[in-house]
């Protein structure tokens, strides 16, 4: 497991091979095992593929193309028990998706949905006004897998005080 | 790895057995392998133990007692390349700490540092004003390990539209 965490890298180039429904379900199961503020689970997930995915990518130039599918993670403030914590819930869920994908030999990358783009994303997908498209994770088989990089920085570690 | 994600639970009761420096380093290494917005890594970590940990717990009644140590994860907006993304960076780092702890047989739980408590936490630990104490993760050996719970909810999954 530690090895999975240490060797995971963002994957931005994909083959055209499909991702199965069972694989997506495993990733979503991993996402929903994330902890959340007082177990509120203030998240929603939209699987994108085909023409809808293509339209989404046209709206978000920052997202790598080429993956056959992906998961749009949305914050649902209507589910919050503690105001303002949905971003943390959803970030934890995204992290689990990325790790589960890597563990299964899939590639994925955390891309943001910029605030400016959210109205168009809502319109494209029929997402309720109160729900916030938060992050999109393209998922596919890696065309190239970046080498692991050790990001440990002792300078960020403090002991019993700054 | 998927099993580690699926079986992880929040641990709130700990034995008095110590956690080694090597174990803590592994958890911090895992934390810093998290992705961050344009790789900004807007995080800092403070290891708490002994009297300092006891004083921290006196300030934060919401945090379970009994763990011999823990990691305070702080957002450092001064390191942000994209304003406002440190919370996402730090949430991903916390998720990796929780998974790495579980993988190593340790117990951990994500506790929040409430805004009201932050000035006192900064004063206790000498944390710079610009740095935000974000989450504290107590770490120890589980006195009780909760049974895995399947949180998958098909109702949160949408396909190519709401």
What is this structure's SSE topology?
Two copies of one chain form a homodimer.
Chain A: H1 2-7, H2 21-32, E1 43-49, H3 50-59, E2 69-75, H4 86-103, E3 107-108, E4 111-112, H5 118-125, E5 132-140, E6 157-159
Antiparallel strand pairs in A: 1-2, 2-5, 3-5, 4-5
Helix pairs in contact in A: 2-4, 3-5
Explain how this protein is built:
2 copies of one chain form a homodimer. Chain A has 162 residues and is of the alpha+beta class. Chain A is built from 5 helices and 6 strands; from the N terminus they run H-H-E-H-E-H-E-E-H-E-E. The longest helix of chain A is centred in the middle third of the chain and has 18 residues, at 86-103. The radius of gyration of chain A is 16 Å and the shape is globular. The first copy, chain A, starts with a helix and ends with a strand. At the A-B interface, helix 1, helix 2, strand 1, helix 3 and helix 4 of A face helix 1, helix 2, strand 1, helix 3 and helix 4 of B. Strand 6 of chain A pairs parallel with strand 1 (43-49) of chain B.
């Amino acid at each position: 497991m530690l090895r999975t965490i240490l060797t995971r890298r963002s994957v931005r180039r994909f083959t055209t091979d499909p991702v199965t429904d069972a694989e997506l379900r495993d990733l979503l199961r991993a996402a929903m095992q994330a902890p959340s503020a007082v177990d509120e689970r203030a998240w929603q997930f939209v699987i994108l593929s085909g023409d809808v995915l293509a339209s989404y990518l046209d709206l978000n130039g920052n997202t790598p193309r080429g993956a056959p599918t992906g998961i749009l993670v949305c914050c649902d403030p209507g589910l919050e028990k503690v105001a303002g914590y949905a971003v943390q819930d959803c970030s934890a869920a995204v992290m689990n998706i990325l790790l589960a994908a890597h563990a299964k030999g899939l590639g994925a990358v955390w891309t943001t949905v910029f605030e400016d783009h959210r109205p168009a994303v809502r319109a494209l997908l029929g997402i309720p006004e109160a729900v916030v498209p938060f992050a999109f994770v393209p998922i596919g088989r890696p065309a190239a897998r970046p080498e692991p990089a050790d990001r440990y920085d002792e300078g960020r570690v403090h002991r019993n005080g700054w």
